[in-house]
Amino acid sequence: GRKTSFSEPLQSVVDHMATHLGVSPSRILLLFGETELSPTATPRTLKLGVADIIDCVVLASSPEATETSQQLQLRVQGKEKHQTLQVSLSQDSPLKTLMSHYEEAMGLSGQKLSFFFDGTKLSGRELPADLGMESGDLIEVWG
Questions:
Q1: Among the four residues 55, 74, 94, 137, which has the most C-beta atoms within 10 Å?
Q2: Which ranges form a coiled coil (predicted)?
Q3: Could you tell me the fold of the domain covering 70-142?
Q4: 59 near 49, Cβ under 8 Å?
């Protein structure tokens, strides 16, 4: 139990809980009854009493992250028609994951393959988010 002064914005509670739970502050939702509390509000403006219970809910992922943690469906196309693979990858997984996945699926592990997106050679360290990838995007493979 941490004492919050009545003029302190709830953001400080949110930050405290976030640190305590090891999640990002944007994933903490404070509820008073059914009401979602804004982190900028203070207990005084909300007329909360000492005995009032604020529920702290941790969202599965922050609203911002829902966009990014969405799985992308990326098409990886080798030089042969049959060498096409659809790979699901989250926006914040390095493309290395997709590359290894493709190599294994095609039985090409250990071969020197180059992966290109929009004409740019990929190192594998990039994240789909960095490249602005969207579902349905095509990655080309040259062996």
A1: 74
A2: none
A3: Ubiquitin-like (UB roll) (3.10.20)
A4: no
Q: Do domains 10-66 and 70-142 have the same CATH topology?
A: yes
Convert the pLDDT of each residue in 64-78 to its tens digit. Answer: 544 545 788 999 999
Tokens matching residue 2: 């941490």
CB-CB contact of 49 with 38 (8 Å): no
Spans of all domains in the chain: 10-66, 70-142
Q: What does the pLDDT look like over 15-60, one tens digit per residue?
A: 988 898 888 888 888 888 888 888 888 888 888 887 888 888 887 7
Give the pLDDT band (50/70/90) at residue 62.
very low
The CA-atom distances, in angstroms, between 63 and each of 15, 40, 41, 42, 57 are 17, 17, 20, 23, 14
Task: Give backbone dihedrals phi and psi of 57, rounded to 5 degrees, phi first.
Answer: -110, 135
